[in-house]
């Protein structure tokens, strides 16, 4: 009974602590939370309190670290959910948060049935990247609102403490949860039974979790993958999306209590839960996410389905691009002669602007007029005086057609004035602002 | 960034003694194109850009045969990975620096490489149109 209760607490706290990224504030949050369960019927055992500490600390850090990223409204919803039967625990939980962190946002508890599951997937442990954290929180908030609507009693972290009963035990045995870190076997069960304590509630929870599937699942899966990504410091967005799409139809995932440094992945119902298959699943999702990215890049791949054909298309595209580069370089070698360039024509504004846009496609359009005048005068110092960051591009944009002629004829004449002239250096450095290291390459050799 | 570098290099090549050897200039321009791709701000942190620069520098200095690899990378027999499709090896050969990467990272690098390649091709096409018009 005691263990069930506190294992449940552990899982809930674990799920909440997913949001936290560091464990600096364990003690303060811990003490507050540990004191809160004092209202529970039974005092926590030494082991449980330890786990509780960690979880609570994480909870505290969650609010502290990621409070800024999560919307305030969600927080309020979260806090309100928790401020129920056991009023003292939530308060105690929330109190240390402001103390610990300048961020005053309340802890983003997600009191929904799938919260435990979702939270379990949050990559809080191990100090994942903020991105994962914030992403998690936002999702949690949204799903939480759903949950609140769905759940009658709401899920309160502390509320479950006293209620915890055989529900955890029954629930735990149901699903083959996968626990990478193996903090507590009971924790898993507890996390699942976030809202109910009785066995009957388990089914209810599952159903409610299923009801809130789209968001919960997304939150959960995202949490799992994100956590892993967080640990691996990889981009989580793709995984999140993958999880959303792929997991929306799965049965409720099993919560996994992830230890800090572990990659938290959720095993799907009916799937193998050993670490190898989970890692493979995550890897496969990553690969599919990257393939989607490539599909967007490579034109004409929208209709193609399947990794093999896509891969062929990608290879063909890369080969064709490389061949194009070779072909264009060959053509440029033949075309790039000063005689072909007509400075007057090239200085025309209408000609330069489209050329500029097509060549560079930068968001900020160049200022053609001043550059035209500058280029027309063929004065290198003027050209070199352009200080704005846009101008280098502008200069190039306008100078594109002129490069052949300008550089060949005028620049050479100017260059002859002095190789190491400041103007030239200015021209090189300022005209080519973006390329610092290559400015040295710009030494004009005569 | 990419365009700047390329234009600089082009200017440099144009200013240099106009070698009659067409192939030499082609090679120079191609070298400049890849160098500007690798120097672009977007790709400076990518594996393929580093590998590409390394490869370019390697080709530029044929005399220094001993400096082939500063970083000893144990290239494992990647082709035997079961999860990868059969064409992954081809992709590895195409993307610079793709030999030492896992399949996941290879796909990511390929995406970035494709982006830069496309930008470079567009840039060169535009230059060509500008010069020839």
UniProtKB/TrEMBL annotation, chain A:
GO CC: one term?
nucleus
Every copy of the BHLH domain together lies at 271-321
Q: Where is the composition biased (Polar residues)?
A: 192-201
Molecular function (Gene Ontology), one example: protein dimerization activity
**Chief subcellular site?**
nucleus
Where in this protein does the record put region Disordered? 158-261, 426-446
Listed Basic residues bias regions = 176-185
Q: Where is the composition biased (Basic and acidic residues)?
A: 202-229, 237-246
Output the Gene3D superfamilies linked to this UniProt entry: Helix-loop-helix DNA-binding domain
User: Which stretches are annotated as coiled coil?
Assistant: none
Q: Where is the composition biased (Low complexity)?
A: 428-440
Instruction: Please provide the record's keywords in A-Z order.
Output: Nucleus, Transcription, Transcription regulation
Q: Which SMART domains match?
A: HLH
Protein family membership: Belongs to the bHLH protein family.
| Name of the protein this chain belongs to | BHLH transcription factor
Origin species, per record, is: Rhynchospora pubera
Source taxonomy: Eukaryota, Viridiplantae, Streptophyta, Embryophyta, Tracheophyta
From TrEMBL, chain B:
Give the protein name, as stated in the record: Transcription factor IBH1
Which terms under GO biological process does the entry name? regulation of DNA-templated transcription
Tell me where in or outside the cell this protein is found. Nucleus
The question of whether Transcription regulation is a record keyword is answered with yes
List membrane-spanning regions: none
Where does the UniProt entry say this protein principally localizes? Answer: nucleus
Provide the Gene Ontology terms for cellular component: nucleus
**Organism in which the protein naturally occurs:** Rhynchospora pubera
**Keyword tags:** Nucleus, Transcription, Transcription regulation
The record's annotation in Pfam families points to:
IBH1_N
Question: Is the keyword Acyltransferase assigned to this protein?
Answer: no
Residue ranges of every copy of the IBH1-like N-terminal domain listed in the record: 5-59
């Amino acid at each position: 009974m005691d263990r069930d209760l506190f294992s449940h607490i552990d899982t809930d706290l674990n799920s909440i602590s997913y949001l936290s990224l560091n464990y600096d504030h364990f003690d303060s949050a811990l003490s507050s939370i540990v004191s809160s369960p004092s209202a529970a019927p039974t005092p926590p055992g030494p082991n449980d309190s330890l786990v509780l500490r960690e979880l609570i600390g994480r909870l505290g850090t969650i609010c502290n670290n990621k409070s800024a990223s999560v919307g305030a409204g969600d927080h309020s919803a979260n806090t309100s959910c928790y401020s129920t039967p056991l009023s003292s625990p939530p308060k105690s939980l929330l109190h240390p948060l402001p103390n610990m962190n300048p961020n005053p946002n309340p802890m983003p508890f997600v009191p929904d049935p799938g919260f435990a599951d979702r939270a379990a997937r949050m990559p809080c442990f191990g100090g994942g990247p903020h991105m994962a954290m914030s992403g998690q929180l936002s999702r949690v908030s949204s799903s939480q609102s759903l949950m609140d609507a769905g759940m009658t009693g709401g899920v309160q972290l502390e509320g479950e403490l006293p209620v915890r009963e055989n529900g955890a035990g029954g629930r735990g045995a149901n699903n083959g949860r996968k626990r990478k870190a193996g903090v507590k076997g009971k924790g898993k069960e507890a996390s699942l039974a976030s809202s109910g304590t009785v066995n009957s509630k388990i089914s209810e929870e599952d159903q409610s979790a299923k009801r809130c599937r789209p968001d919960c699942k997304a939150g959960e899966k995202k949490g799992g993958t994100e956590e892993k990504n967080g640990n691996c410091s990889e981009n989580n967005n793709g995984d999140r999306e993958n999880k959303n799409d792929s997991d929306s139809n799965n049965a409720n995932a099993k919560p996994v209590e992830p230890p800090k440094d572990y990659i938290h992945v959720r095993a799907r119902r009916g799937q193998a839960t050993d670490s190898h298959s989970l890692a493979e699943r995550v890897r496969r999702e990553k690969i599919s996410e990257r393939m989607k990215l490539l599909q967007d890049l490579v034109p004409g791949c929208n209709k193609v389905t399947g990794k093999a054909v896509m891969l062929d298309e990608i290879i063909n595209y890369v080969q064709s691009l490389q061949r194009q580069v070779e072909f264009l370089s060959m053509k440029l070698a033949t075309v790039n002669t000063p005689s072909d360039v007509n400075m007057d024509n090239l200085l025309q504004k209408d000609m330069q602007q489209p050329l500029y846009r097509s060549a560079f496609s930068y968001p900020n359009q160049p200022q053609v007029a001043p550059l035209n005048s500058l280029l027309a005068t063929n004065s290198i110092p003027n050209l070199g005086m352009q200080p704005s960051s846009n101008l280098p591009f502008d200069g190039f944009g306008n100078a594109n057609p002129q490069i052949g002629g300008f550089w060949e004829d005028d620049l050479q004449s100017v260059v002859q004035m002095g190789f190491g002239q400041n103007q030239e250096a200015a021209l090189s450095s300022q005209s080519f602002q973006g390329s610092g290291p290559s400015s040295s390459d710009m030494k004009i050799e005569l | 960034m990419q365009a700047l570098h390329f234009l600089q290099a082009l200017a440099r090549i144009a200013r240099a003694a106009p070698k009659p050897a067409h192939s030499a200039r082609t090679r120079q321009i191609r070298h400049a194109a890849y160098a500007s791709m690798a120097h672009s701000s977007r790709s400076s942190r990518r594996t393929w850009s580093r590998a590409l620069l390394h490869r370019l520098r390697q080709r530029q200095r044929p005399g220094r045969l001993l400096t082939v690899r500063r970083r000893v990378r144990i290239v494992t027999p990647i082709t035997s990975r079961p999860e990868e499709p059969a064409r992954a090896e081809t992709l590895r050969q195409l993307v610079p620096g793709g030999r030492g990467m896992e399949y996941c990272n290879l796909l990511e690098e390929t995406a970035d490489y494709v982006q830069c390649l496309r930008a470079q091709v567009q840039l060169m096409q535009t230059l060509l149109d500008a010069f020839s018009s």
